[in-house]
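Why do we bother with holo predictions? Because pocket geometry can differ from the apo form. Keep that in mind while you read this record for NAP.
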Amino acid sequence: MLRIRHQADGGAGLLRAERVRRPEPGAGELLVRVRAIGVTLPVVRRLRGSAGPVPLGGEVAGEVAALGPGVTGFAVGERVTGLCFADAYAEYAVLGATMASRIPDRATEVEAVALVRSGLVAGGAHAAARPEPHESVLVTAAAGGVGTLALQYARAAGASRVVAAVGSADKAGFVRALGADAVVHYGDADWGGPYDVILDGVGGDLLTPAVRALAPGGRLVAFSSGGGTVEAYELLLRGASVIGFQIRALVTGHPELHARRLRELWHLHATGALRPAVHAEIPLTGAARAHALLEERRNLGKVVLVP
Ligand SMILES: NC(=O)c1ccc[n+]([C@@H]2O[C@H](COP(=O)([O-])OP(=O)(O)OC[C@H]3O[C@@H](n4cnc5c(N)ncnc54)[C@H](OP(=O)(O)O)[C@@H]3O)[C@@H](O)[C@H]2O)c1
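The structure, written out:
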């Protein structure tokens, strides 16, 4: 089978295609014939300057090709999706059964990888803010895989105003079409606030202007891989709070809540309230091109690899 591996070279490294034997699923694992792979920003960022090879993880979707020892609740041929932490860029991938969930008949594999992990992050971050229907919401990295769904979550929950923050002006039409009432750019002196809720997928230096855009009692949910520091005095001035959200902590620590959120996600997809946006479907051998789209911050929605 074909697989892409990362080879470090001090820069972003090389993504090399290689022919290898199909992996065997171990205990509690599924072997999946992969039809779609979601490219994620955390993986793209880890490649830059890495001293060693980076495991290429990502969301995968496809049919179950084999069951490892002890797996129950799944059958060969069923369509599933889930997050692989390594060797996801391949024609066959090994997926932990606890990470896997079924894809409803109406959805394609490409839709599944664009919806599930990003939607669980968007929905989880939104819920962590405990928003009230009349409140205003700002979403940063709003044109990205998670951001596009976070905008739609806020809209579906009845936010009074949903504002998209993006890195470049040419993304404005795209995020408006997804339901944003207004668009701001990170460099704007005025972010159009104050906001009751900010869902932040950027972090780093952007945390300071974001916290300053919070309303009294406002909540910022930090879910980015961008790090950053929050000035406590800025929170004190507004009686505001910062809440962290991580999907892995939800999946491993609260499996019942995770399962409920997953059902809600597919329900919102069925009603049309959540429409995953796919920027491009790129063949597996074009993985470097797919990474460049995220690194150059040009993607409008999810970038998907198709083996
Ligand atoms: N907490 C969790 O469990 C969890 C899970 C998955 C993802 N995340 C985080 O959610 C955020 C979005 O992830 P995603 O996979 O959906 O990616 P994505 O939004 O599709 O990623 C690409 C977009 O992110 C924005 N961006 C912000 N900072 C960037 C940077 N330093 N380098 C490149 N792009 C940057 C860019 O848009 P603009 O230029 O318009 O900002 C870019 O187009 C990331 O920070 C990721 O780490 C968190």
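The chain has two domains: 2-103+277-306, 119-247.
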